[in-house]
Amino acid sequence: MSARKQARNPGGRPRDSRVDDAIASAVRELLTEVGYTRLTMAEVAARAGVGKAAIYRRHATKQEMIFEVLLPDQFLAVAPDCGSLRADLAAVLAEIADTMASPPQGTVPGLLADVHADPALRDRFNEKYLGVQRRTLTEILDRATARGELTTRPDPATLNALLVGPVFAWLFLLTESPDGLPALTSALLDATLALTGPV
Amino acid sequence: MSARKQARNPGGRPRDSRVDDAIASAVRELLTEVGYTRLTMAEVAARAGVGKAAIYRRHATKQEMIFEVLLPDQFLAVAPDCGSLRADLAAVLAEIADTMASPPQGTVPGLLADVHADPALRDRFNEKYLGVQRRTLTEILDRATARGELTTRPDPATLNALLVGPVFAWLFLLTESPDGLPALTSALLDATLALTGPV
Amino acid sequence: MSARKQARNPGGRPRDSRVDDAIASAVRELLTEVGYTRLTMAEVAARAGVGKAAIYRRHATKQEMIFEVLLPDQFLAVAPDCGSLRADLAAVLAEIADTMASPPQGTVPGLLADVHADPALRDRFNEKYLGVQRRTLTEILDRATARGELTTRPDPATLNALLVGPVFAWLFLLTESPDGLPALTSALLDATLALTGPV
Amino acid sequence: MSARKQARNPGGRPRDSRVDDAIASAVRELLTEVGYTRLTMAEVAARAGVGKAAIYRRHATKQEMIFEVLLPDQFLAVAPDCGSLRADLAAVLAEIADTMASPPQGTVPGLLADVHADPALRDRFNEKYLGVQRRTLTEILDRATARGELTTRPDPATLNALLVGPVFAWLFLLTESPDGLPALTSALLDATLALTGPV
DNA sequence: ATCTAAGCGAGACGGTACGTCTTGTCTTAGG
DNA sequence: CCTAAGACAAGACGTACCGTCTCGCTTAGAT
Q1: At what angle do helices C62-70 and C107-117 cross, to 10 degrees?
Q2: CA(B71)–C1'(F2) in Å?
Q3: What is the pLDDT of residues C12-43, one digit of tens each?
């Protein structure tokens, strides 16, 4: 995922993957210890035992670094296929909720703000996060349609907002505990499925 | 709204209310022109024709300044009473959506990030924004219960997340156009009301 | 001498002269302790108990800062008038030699290199150092001419090079001790005066 | 000149002399184009079509590299013997002046500054440049003494400063044109010889 | 005909300084 | 006590450069 400018020419010393790991670990530690805003590049470098240049060789800005470190490479890599629309949606929602709830306090809101401030980061966010979500939801709807589970086929963007929004709001607007997420997502699936109409 | 530290001593020169207005206007202009992150106090002061001290006398930090300038004083001042649960929720949701959609690009996510970073701002946010929302929703539920519209009385926090979350996600995660909000909120109300059970 | 951008408008907090002094002292200390090359702005700021911005408000670059701190404000302010050409030249030469020998090891060569690398610094150097020297020498020659001490009037630039060059070479090319300067300047004056011809 | 660490073991690939030449050419080009300070090792390597390691295999530091590239191998290899003290001094002075005036703008002052900052470079400078000068001057004085041209035998260091200093000052303090050097050196010899006394 | 030590170009590495920027506080002179 | 202007301490940012190290490969001389 990282590796922004891969060497075209195979000559030259190759990137040291231990440096990637050290950076990622330092970022995660510091996010936990000091939070998104107070994380500094100098401290990441020091903590990782790495020069700042090694970081900037991999990540264009502090924001992209954090995004790239936190977003799992395998995020929604395969669309779940559990046999029913509800089960598929539940699986997707669980993975999304997990990705939101895992990073340390304040990281997700901080990142979202920077996504809105930095066009380059926005592009990466759209590509690596939103696009994957939309493709996965579309695939799930395709399968449900094939199964005859849907009377009306909802708009994927609307469905996306209806599913992800409450989880985000629960965690980052209301700042409620992640422990309440299961109950929330259960109600959320009931409500959403009411829209698609029972067969 | 403003006036964080009211003069204890009535003696001395009174605050100039034109300064308050000039600051508010400058903040709104700059949010539109350069966005939340690139707005600086020095530029607000220059644009408003005001000293930085005059700003800090009114607002403790940059973040509180923006929050106080943007949040309408009358936000959800009176709970709507339109005769039905759906109409009441629609009215509340419309006002909330409007408050979210009005500020310039990136302002709401920026503010939300700072709410997570700054405990003092979080207190103000809880008091002036979240608390009002929850109180209003509770009152609406009370009325609906009295009318006999509810078979099960939902948890206010869950309801809050179900209603506000999708609007937030639509605007700030998916970055879809505010034009799509009416369709979204309509579906949203349908789905949410399906939970409360038809009478 | 310092004060690069003087406030046009008298409004605003005035510069704190203690900051000027603290910077100058820190620069002198650090030049002595670590030398020209290893002096860093961050350390100057720390040593002076001052923010870096306070330094850059006064001095455009590290090089100009050192130049402005080291060059005495009164350098050759008044041309000596001792009654004879030789005495006048001796006085000027002593002051120039003193200005060269005073700064800590390596400072003068370092500064001279930067003068050749930075046009802005070169302008300041020409104005504050060379110009003053040439004007002073010209004035001394004028007086000697009026006294009838000169058979041929030497070119001021040549005279300048003949006088200052050996001192510079003694200190910075040969790296001989400043203790040898009196003997050198004495021989130097004899040689130079031989050119102008005895009356 | 080059070859700082000669291979002890004759095994292994020998140095490629074309690499030496390519480095020297690149250094000279870049000194002319960007000057001493802005010359970087990476750019020298790129220009020479050479790896940085190949440079550092030959030269310990950037400063030594430049010094070694610029100082002629044959600098003052043989003391001139022109039949008179003045002619000998003129020949030495011309060669020294030429060595100073040849390198691109700013190179000599830059190098001199680094000589004062780096003890290792200073040693090389003393050995390859100053020592040669002093030995040559001493030899010339010996011959002049044998010829009976000297009434008083001047101190070699003083003579060195008196001769070389004005040339240095002319070029690097006053930044006058090298075209003026012949006139300067002529006056300089007159003045200096006046000290040694006519026979 | 290997073997092997050292050369080679490319470029990543740790470290460190630079000059810019912003925040929230403080200091003027004046209303 | 307010105001406008702007200096202040602190410290993060992203860039640049140095001198070292690592990669895969080439090039001789010694066996």
Answers
A1: 130
A2: 27
A3: 789 999 999 999 999 999 999 999 999 999 99
Domain housing C101? 85-196
Q: Is D127 found in the same domain as D48? A: no
Residue of B151, B168, B181, B196 to mutate, interface with A, max A Cβ within 10 Å? B168
For residue B27, give the CATH number of its domain.
1.10.10.60
Residue type, C59: H
Secondary structure (3-state) at B3: coil
Q: How many domains does chain A have?
A: 2
Predicted pLDDT of residue B78: 87
Stated in angstroms, how far is A19 CA from E25 C1'?
41
pLDDT of residue B197: 67
> Would you call C169 exposed, middle or buried from its count of C-beta atoms within 10 A (0-12, 13-18, 19+)?
buried
Rounded-to-integer distance, Cα D154 and Cα B123, Å: 86
* Helix axis angle, A181-196 to B181-196, nearest 10°: 110
Residue of A137, A138, A155, A174 best to disrupt the B interface, most CBs of B under 10 A = A174
Angle ∠(C45,C46,C48) on CA atoms, nearest 5: 65
Compare A35 and B8 and report the one with higher pLDDT: A35
The upper half-sphere exposure of residue C93, i.e. CA atoms within 13 Å in the direction of its Cβ, equals 27
d(CA C122, CA C112): 9
Q: Same domain, yes or no, for C122 and C171?
A: yes
> Do D102 and D172 sit in the same domain of this protein?
yes
Looking at the structure, do residues B93 and B173 belong to the same domain, yes or no?
A: yes
pLDDT digits (tens, 9 = 90+) for D28-77: 999 999 999 999 999 999 999 999 999 999 999 999 999 999 998 889 99
Q: How many residues does chain A have?
A: 199
Ordered mean pLDDT values, 10 residues apiece, chain A (199 residues): 46 91 97 96 96 96 96 88 94 96 95 95 94 95 93 92 98 96 95 78
- Do D120 and D22 have their domain in common? no
